[in-house]
Design goal:
Chain A contains eleven helices and seven strands. By secondary structure, chain A is an alpha/beta fold. Chain A has a seven-stranded mixed sheet with strand order 3-4-2-5-1-6-7, with helices on both faces. Chains A and B meet through helix 9 of A and helix 9 of B. The complex binds adenosine-5'-triphosphate (ATP) (2 copies) and magnesium ion (2 copies).
Chain lengths: ~280, ~280
């Protein structure tokens, strides 16, 4: 079955977008078919993988307004096996526009379900011909009944409104990137409350991973916070820590993933390590 | 007249809270009376100045719900002349609870106006006796007609919803902290659009300062982004740059401002320099 993971933390600037893009790319490099969904109106993820949001017409915004199905918004990236549903600044309006729609939190979930299990004839949902050419790419079921992607990673904005609720209702798991700074544990209660509230609508949702991000172990602050995070979350905290690495901050300005920008960097190593851990392929060390 | 400044940027983790607290403290150290208003449900600002949000009953949340006036929620901090209206996790619910209230964006503005210009008898607004003891502290007009504070700094969450709109309607100026990283300029269009939209309700609102934050000039990325930011905003960018300084990240874990935690650090120097620039007291260099 497809693993649908919402990457979220309402604390801002903790590495949500960076984790979505580079974990997604690392999973694709290991042969998985991965879809990234950008649910943040800032569209940082879309730009990170080389899109130009102001030029796009089919995005998560038009999807949420019901203008088309998911298949029409899926775009390839320069990484084989990695696809994206981009967003645009206008998505900020979806929050208000959907305010009076019944079941407004379920729009993304329904769109994903329809796309992941395409119509029996082997075409895309709604019978639209698939745009990706020859390879059995994301969106095309190469064997009847096989879902269209192995992983879906959803990048969330730094807030707990309708956009994040859509992600939580669509996901089976939550991945929480956490910065090793003092405010890290502050907002966590709000997130756990939101996850619990959504479990009424989405019974199986669980917090599956807490990923220490932007870690600089030279500072006592980072070490103290790491101890607290491990004390609070126990085994949910990944063995992998993402180290602070300027290459990770440079890659988005070139529209590349860390593997496209500098595959030998610490950032590339750490995200590949995280992918191995997510797949249960981490060598026992 | 009191300068009311909304500190905002929907990009997360760029130093909004750190700027509010430490610029506020630096202005108070220069003899100004300063009120900090925490409009972020994460309540990072409140914790930064030593409050315990879960224990508080009078916050921006109960204020927005009309339970009391501003005066009842104002608390002193350990810095003379610096006061705070704290927030609490529950503030996240205000967004939904106010959704159908007419004029929901004007609640903070009306509360501030009533408090800044207290009733003629020299008591607090609504005649309530002032809680701060002998000194003509914030909240008490020491001379008839003098406003209760010289500066009000409003910390905003990383989103452009009702809470941020309240801040924009109440403020005369916007201070935009900007990180010297690639995504810095991405969300700016959204902010300028919001400021313009609010000018219908609040004619005098203007973007008065763009403050480069968390600057590490050793990286080419920071220097490139700084050039772009100065190119885009021109003179609105402050001369003062806030350098990356781990002391700034340590201070909140001790409930202190940077001046209480390490007054000789780069962080303390930079925020004092910024305060001088805000007051027009920067020596010409
Ligand atoms: N491990 C890292 N080392 C160095 N820089 C990093 C790292 N991870 C992310 N960054 C940089 O830090 C900034 C914040 O990261 P990012 O934008 O991914 O966070 P976010 O949680 O998605 O932010 P927002 O809350 O605004 O959505 C970006 O400029 C990014 O390039
Ligand atoms: N100049 C600086 N040098 C080093 N660390 C800093 C600096 N300014 C802020 N920090 C740290 O970086 C993190 C982000 O800063 P802060 O919380 O003030 O940003 P914010 O914009 O308020 O975030 P949010 O979007 O979540 O409200 C915090 O852990 C803070 O302590
Ligand atoms: Mg992001
Ligand atoms: Mg903040």
């Amino acid at each position: 079955a497809t693993r649908i993971i919402a990457v979220l933390n309402q604390k801002g600037g903790v590495g949500k977008t960076t984790t979505c893009v580079n974990l997604g790319a690392a999973l694709a490099r290991r042969g998985r078919r991965v879809l990234l969904v950008d649910m943040d109106p800032q569209a940082n993820l879309s730009v990170h993988v080389g899109m130009e949001p102001h030029k796009l017409t089919k995005t998560t915004y038009s999807l949420l307004l019901g203008k088309h199905g998911l298949a029409e918004a899926v775009q390839p990236t320069d990484t084989p096996g990695l696809f994206v549903v981009p967003s645009t600044l206008g998505l900020a309006n979806a929050e208000i526009q959907l305010a009076s729609t019944v079941g407004r939190e379920l729009v993304l979930r329904e769109a994903l379900e329809e796309w992941l299990h395409p119509a029996p004839e082997g075409q895309g949902p709604g019978g639209a011909p698939l745009p990706f050419g020859q390879t059995p790419a994301v969106g095309e079921a190469d064997a009847p009944g096989r879902p269209s992607a192995d992983f879906v990673l959803i990048d969330c904005p730094p807030s707990l409104g309708t956009l994040t609720m859509n992600a939580l209702c669509a996901a089976g798991e939550v991945l929480l990137p956490i910065q090793t700074e003092f405010f890290a544990l502050q907002g966590v209660a709000g997130i756990l409350e939101s996850v619990k509230a959504v479990q009424r609508l989405n019974r199986g949702l669980r917090l599956s991973m807490v990923v220490p991000s932007m870690v600089d172990r030279r500072t006592t602050l980072a070490r103290d916070v790491l101890d607290e995070v491990r004390g609070y979350f126990g085994d949910v905290v990944t063995k992998t820590e993402i180290r602070k690495n300027v290459k990770l901050a440079e890659a988005p300005s070139h529209g590349r993933t860390i593997f496209g920008w500098d595959a030998r960097s610490n950032g590339a190593e750490d995200y590949d390590h995280l992918a191995a851990e997510v797949l249960g392929e981490l060598e026992q060390t």
